[in-house]
Amino acid sequence: MTNTKIAFYLMNEKGFYTLKKFIKNFGAQNIVYIVSSQDNNMKKDYFHEIMVLCKKKNILFFNRNDDYKEYEKKFQGYRFTIGWKWMIKNEKKLIVFHDSLLPMYRGFSPLVNSLINGEKVIGVTALFANSEYDKGDIIMQKSITISYPITIKKSIKKIRPLYYQLVEQIYNLIINNQDLPSYIQDEDKATYSIWLNEKDYYINWEEWSAKKIKRFVDAVGYPFDNAKSILNSQIIEVIEVKIIKDIKIKNRKRHLGKIVFIKENYPVIICKKGLIALVKIHNGNDNKFKINFRSKFQ
Fold first, then answer.
1. Structural domain for 97, as ranges
2. Which stretches of 5-104 are DSSP H helices?
3. Is the residue at 250 inside a domain?
4. CA-closest candidate to residue 147, choices 212, 215, 213, 246
5. 17, β-bridge pairs
6. Backbone angles phi, psi at 217, to 5 degrees
7. pLDDT, tens digit, 9 for 90 and up, residues 228-255
8. C-alpha angle with apex 89: 134 to 161, nearest 5 degrees?
9. 171 and 230 share one domain
10. Which of 29, 159, 259, 271 could form a disulfide with 210 if both were Cys (CB 3.0 to 4.6 A apart)?
């Protein structure tokens, strides 16, 4: 076992994409082992695809719940984590790939939160792991500019090549026995991205503009769990929306979340600022529910 071989801790589409590209360009023989895990918060997590590819290429594969600690202890090379959600105790030669331009958006769901906030530049950071999450020294970063509207699905496809580009650059340094560059993060610029629970997927009709609701729906859609609202005591998934030209509404604050029109069979909802049409919604079951002018989303 040489130090130019590496190990991966991979999850989701970005991990699978990077693994395929790495195998194609550097060969499966340079990967000692791979650890992956299912992600119950995603409708498609690529766990099966990662596992099948490893078996096809004869790469030692572990589920996160398997016993692979002895392999970790013996392995002396670099380990790369992509999409990984857990702390790894042995930080030596551990490189983390994070969904933001650190020190901004440390923490969880950074890409989703970046889209909700309307960030025009998104990116990926490669950093050395340390005992505090996402605070290690930065090795290198890559970024792209995006424009809105944009869905999370399209954003992932745009950002995933950055992961492989960083892996490729770092691995080339490793195989050429060159030192990896690094610099300390600026704590004064640090911001944190907080994990999302079930309640965080609900639209806030009382506080959000149509523009923010559009960004939110696009940001938490497939492969995530979709935006939600309550209609007639039912949970409704809001999958696609479009912004409608606003009108003057008397006592607007009292009527937020109410339907004001039905246009082209789409209910048009009053927002704090602007109007939004619900282009694609369903209740998760038979999709049969009544919408009329006296319906109010909560």
1. 6-193
2. 12-26, 47-56, 69-74
3. yes
4. 215
5. none
6. -60, -45
7. 999 888 899 999 999 999 999 999 999 9
8. 45
9. no
10. 271
